[in-house]
Amino acid sequence: MARFYGVPAGGYIGLTNSKINDAQSGFETGMSVVAGYLGGVDILNMAGLLDALMAFDFAKAVIDNEIALMLKQIRRGFEFSEENFALDQIAAIGPGGMFAGTEHTLERMRTGMFLAEVADRDPRAQWQERGGLDAQARALRRARDILTHDNPAVFSPEVDARLRAAFAGMVAGDSVPPEGWKRVARETESEDESGLRRRRRRHERVPG
Question: What dihedral angle (degrees, nearest 10) is formed by the CA atoms of 114, 119, 122, 128?
């Protein structure tokens, strides 16, 4: 119906009946968002929801954001062209050769490869050195960082004023941390934040 009328289609896709952010939450959310995407859904209402809409989890909101970024990467697709196929390089490097060091491969890795923010892809030794945190702990740390630090405005003051004039009663955009999470001023950028910023810049360079 949405395609017939040329309007976006949305729905509560990516939900879970799990009461906590566990394996059930992961596979139910992951499978349902892929099914929704393949069905043509444009808008997914999913961020942080547990227990069939009865509960919200900050860490799951961060994880769901990563799932949405993965879907966005899939939706961009890949261009099938002679340049991307690189048959001449395949012939030149030959069987047993290394493609990862070529500029052609590196350039396409920057745009075609999904760069995770929550998922851990480091060797086990590095993961252990960083505390051996699971996905829930890493996502919760990211959520805490977002909610307890000042965040830059999404819109310019002019756009913000126009939005508030058009929509009376709009609440302030400042993040409100949960009880017990002390708000602190953002003075320096941590190693994790610096890495996230670099990954986001790479995603922004991807066309589509």
Answer: 170
Q: At what angle do helices 23-38 and 58-76 cross, to 10 degrees?
A: 30
Q: What is the C-alpha to C-alpha distance for residues 38 and 30, in angstroms, rounded to an integer?
A: 12
Question: Can you give the pLDDT at residue 204?
Answer: 46
Distance CA 61, CA 117 (A): 13
pLDDT of residue 207: 40
What's the full length of the chain, in residues? 208
CA atoms within 13 A on the CB side of 97: 11
Domain ranges across the chain: 2-76, 82-112
The number of beta carbons lying within 10 Å of the beta carbon of residue 53 is 12
pLDDT tens digits for range 112-145: 778 888 999 999 999 999 999 999 999 999 999 8
Looking at residue 66, its pLDDT comes to: 93
168-199, pLDDT tens digit by residue? 877 666 667 777 787 776 665 555 555 555 55
Closest CA to 113 of 94, 132, 100, 127: 100
Strand ranges (DSSP E) for the chain? 10-11, 43-44, 49-50, 55-56
Q: How far is CA 32 from CA 38, 55, 194, in A?
A: 10, 18, 32
| 25 touches 58 (CB < 8 A) | no
